[in-house]
């Protein structure tokens, strides 16, 4: 039972353009959402998060949008850079530190 | 910077062997976690610990056990390794919020 889903296993974007990564969830109890980024041979690193009381959170080139009614969140990267090529995982939880992760999307930025 | 160190980068074991995966964190974090990462399945929580000698099952605890005798160390034990336990194993720690700090992972192959 995959409660957090990333339906696009991979995505290719031209350098300088916008990258949009999507994530859907089924558990309406989730109230905190995070994005992690993973390079090969390294562990995931925290990128950005959003609480369910907000619908947008921005940090530099990265913005996360949350649509609670659709149970959908997205990560926007503008402008995309070659160093953004990585696997991105969305994650969610409710009231504790136990995160439920999605399946990941491999983002490739084309120079 | 938080450092989470996993003792082995690559490990090859035989079916039926007892396997120990070690993880050490240097930031006095209360919480520690073991995940496995598999293609198409994302990161799945095996076990976690909120304190020394405390442990709780995650989503896929079958075939695994854990030990936390000291705050900084969290060990994952495969009592009798099987081929379906071939995977990337990721240890993480946190201060008590949702931002996990991950180690670089141990790629375990069970032959």
How would you describe this structure in keywords?
heterodimer; A: 111 residues; mainly beta; six-stranded mixed sheet; five-stranded antiparallel sheet; globular; B: 111 residues; seven-stranded mixed sheet; three-stranded antiparallel sheet; 12 strands; 0% helix
Short description:
Chain A is mostly beta strands and 111 residues long. Chain A contains no helices and eleven strands.
Would you give an account of this structure?
The complex is a heterodimer of chains A (111) and B (111). Chain A has 111 residues and is mainly β. Helix content of chain A is 0%, strand content 54%. Chain A has strands spanning 4-5, 10-14, 19-25, 32-38, 45-51, 56-59, 62-67, 72-77, 86-93, 100-101, 105-110. In chain A, strands 2, 4, 5, 9, 10 and 11 form a six-stranded mixed sheet that branches. In chain A, strands 1-3-8-7-6 form a five-stranded antiparallel sheet, with no helix packed on it. The radius of gyration of chain A is 13 Å and the shape is globular. The relative contact order of chain A is 0.35. Chain B has 111 residues and is mostly beta strands. Helix content of chain B is 0%, strand content 53%. Chain B has no helices and twelve strands. In chain B, the strands form three sheets. In chain B, strands 2, 5, 6, 7, 10, 11 and 12 form a seven-stranded mixed sheet that branches. Chain B has a three-stranded antiparallel sheet with strand order 3-9-8, with no helix packed on it. A two-stranded antiparallel ribbon of chain B has the order 1-4. The model of chain B has no long low-confidence stretch (mean pLDDT 93). The interface between A and B is medium-sized, with 24 and 26 residues.
């Amino acid at each position: 039972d995959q409660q957090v889903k990333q339906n696009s296993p991979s995505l290719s974007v031209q350098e300088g353009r916008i990258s949009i990564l999507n994530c859907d969830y089924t558990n309406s109890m989730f109230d905190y959402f995070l994005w992690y980024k993973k390079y090969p041979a390294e562990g995931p690193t925290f990128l950005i998060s959003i609480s369910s009381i907000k619908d947008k959170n921005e940090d530099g080139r990265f913005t996360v949008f949350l649509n609670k009614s659709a149970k959908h969140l997205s990560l926007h990267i503008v402008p995309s850079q070659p160093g953004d090529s990585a696997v991105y995982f969305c994650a969610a939880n409710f009231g504790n530190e136990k995160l439920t992760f999605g399946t990941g999307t491999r983002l490739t930025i084309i120079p | 910077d938080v450092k989470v160190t996993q003792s082995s980068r690559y490990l090859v074991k035989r079916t039926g062997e007892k396997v120990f995966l070690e993880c050490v964190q240097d930031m006095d974090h209360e919480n520690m976690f073991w995940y496995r990462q598999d293609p198409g399945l994302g990161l799945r929580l095996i076990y976690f610990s909120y304190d020394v000698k405390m442990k709780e099952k995650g989503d896929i605890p079958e075939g695994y056990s854990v030990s936390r005798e000291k705050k900084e160390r969290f060990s994952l034990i495969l009592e009798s390794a099987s081929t379906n336990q071939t995977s990337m194993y990721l240890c993480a720690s946190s201060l008590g919020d949702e931002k996990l700090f991950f180690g670089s992972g141990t790629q375990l192959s069970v032959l």
